[in-house]
Amino acid sequence: MTTGVERLFDELGHFKRFQACLYFAAIFQAISCGIHYLASVFLVQTPKFLCDAPSNITDILYRNHSSTSLADIWTHYKPGDGPVVVRTAGGDQWELSPCLKVLRLDAINFKYEFFGNKTVESCGGFVYDHSEVEQSIVTDWDLVCEKEWLAKLAQPTFMLGVLIGALVFGDVADRIGRRPILMATSLCQFLFGVTVAFTGNYYLFVLMRFLLAMVSSGYLVVVFVYVTEFTGIKVRTWTSMHVHAAFAVGIMVVAIVGYLVRVWWIYQIILTLSTSPFLLYCWKFPETPFYLMAKGRYKEAQELLDTMAYFNGLPPTLKVSELKDECDGALLNDNKQEDGKVVEVKKRLSILDMFGSLKMASRSATCWAIWFIGSLGYYVFSLGSVNLGGNQYINLFLAGAVEVPSYLIGCFAMDRVGRKKTCAPALLLGGVACMLIIVVPQDIEILALVLSMTGKFTIAIAFGLIYLYTCELYPTIIRSLAVGSGSMMCRVGSVVAPFCVYLADIWIYLPQLIVGILAFIIGILTFFLPETLGQPLTSTLEEAEALGSKPNKKNTAVDVLEMNQSIKA
């Protein structure tokens, strides 16, 4: 029998009717996080374009193709493979390229090749191929050529907001509660999401997306804590892992809506409205029992226990007084303790404690690397899926779909073959799949897509389990610090990912190759980490350092509470 607040799950069920309703309601809104994180794939999509064409065009040439309308040329036009030559009613001949236009001087015959004198002019505007992208922020605000960097800055700026939001809302949720943050961030997601659609210029668009990123990240961080504190230890691995699955559903929603709607502001509104029903019932969410107990709000905690018992079909016999023990209140990092000794220990902890010995330094560096490559690979495969050739909407949909089985397999493997033996092979397989892309012939797009999706599948497994694995690799006194610092490396990876995706302009498979090489190297390093399956949680640095080298006979009476605290952090 577990002790402390965790005991309520033994009494009222680890995942019965009450928890199931809360869980699926809460992760429904997590779908919106996946939506907003990946929405930029089509918001800032750049179609084929050329320098503005003169009026009164009568003839058009591109290589061996001729027409009287630019619309007929787009299907044949390839950027970088020569200009489009046009002739006006007045007899002028122009060579149109994406970022400049050239006037042929004294041209007589209308041919594609011309070796006479020319004058170069800058573009006064641009014409776009609207067959695939009817309207995006790129076409609305001409974010091409010298302004191309503005379009490419949109996603990194969003990811910076994700980083800041995780830091801000995670801390605030520990201070004022999980429920208020879930409600506030959900409402702000709706408001900022709709506002993005009506921004009249690029800079306001980026600002609104930045704020949207903050609240989306805040919700994702806090909902992870929320479902963790409402589900018992028997199902916690599954419930926490499948919050990520809801995120993956959001990616698939982006692909479907992007295919159906080609006007960016309508697309943005529909994406925002898709999870708006959550606002109708989120105000009914209760605060978590762990938070109520930690803050001494025992009357509310007792009402919650009675409600849980009622919904789960059990008699309301469990009393708050039975849950109070020496661990009461320990779940909040910022909770002021009466024991001065505990406060003193917390004050002298720093990130340097993770590198106190060569063994721990090696472990910390490897964990950080896994956090980094997990996030980098995740977003490179997701954001870059539209660049793999073939149908970009199907590619993005598959990038989200492959995640769902990856979490199922990851959960089974973690509990059967171990954390290390799941993480390391996943990274190695992902690395090999990505590096094999080099030898794929350019005309076999389906094989490149399969290898890329294999990489996304395996990276998702490693990314999903590193949260729990990090908790088990570090002792109680620095466990929250270890998870927090790993999360920071994760955010760094997400900020770097868009820049990595842009390397596809150099070579279409370069982003996947970079991720593959890093994943393979980090996968090898993961084999040097200790296995933690079946091991009790450690309390001291000495015990943590001894993992994998000798049996640890630590008493596990409060391990369940410590694990919950670290996953929350």
From TrEMBL:
Pfam name, any one: Sugar_tr
PROSITE patterns named among the record's database cross-references: MFS (PS50850)
Domain Major facilitator superfamily (MFS) profile: 102-534
Membrane topology designation: Multi-pass membrane protein
Gene Ontology molecular function: transmembrane transporter activity
GO cellular component, one term: membrane
Bilayer-spanning residue ranges: 20-39, 181-204, 210-228, 240-259, 364-381, 393-410, 422-440, 446-469, 481-504, 510-529
UniProt cross-references to InterPro entries, sorted A to Z: MFS_dom (IPR020846), MFS_sugar_transport-like (IPR005828), MFS_trans_sf (IPR036259)
Subcellular location, principal: membrane
Keyword Transmembrane helix (UniProt): yes
Localization per record: Membrane
Keywords: Membrane, Transmembrane, Transmembrane helix
PANTHER family: SOLUTE CARRIER FAMILY 22 MEMBER
Descriptive protein name: Solute carrier family 22 member 16-like
Record organism: Sinocyclocheilus anshuiensis
Organism taxonomic ancestry: Eukaryota, Metazoa, Chordata, Craniata, Vertebrata
